[in-house]
Amino acid sequence: MPNIKSAIKRVKVTEAKTVKNTNRKSALKTAIKKCSEIIKKKDPSAAAVLNATASTIDKAASKNILHKNTAARRKSKLARAMNATK
What SS3 string covers 2-41? Predict the structure, then answer.
């Protein structure tokens, strides 16, 4: 544990950010899994779910949880799966 006051604060802030980012990443993974399952089932509501998931992915990229190219790749992968089931 650091002795300097600013270093103590940085440790606290880092721990809080780590927890928040972990939760966001977990929610993102859950959304992607649910979306891909709905697409595989050829559910009529798949387009709406895809849009919501794409929004979630974009939000994660804007918060620096995902790199922007990773976000684009994941959205593209879901879109390709959606188009393949039509």
Answer: CCCHHHHHHHHHHHHHHHHHHHHHHHHHHHHHHHHHHHHC
> Nearest Cα to 74, choosing from 47, 42, 35?
35
| CA pair distance 64, 62, nearest whole angstrom | 5
In the chain the domains, ranked by start, together with CATH numbers, are 5-84 (1.20.58.110)
| Residue 29 CB contacts under 8 Å (≥ 6 apart), including other chains | none
What's the whole-model pTM score? 0.86
Instruction: Grade residue 86 by pLDDT with cuts at 50, 70 and 90.
Output: confident
Place of tokens 């994660």: 60
What is the largest distance, in Å, between two alpha-carbon atoms of the chain? 61
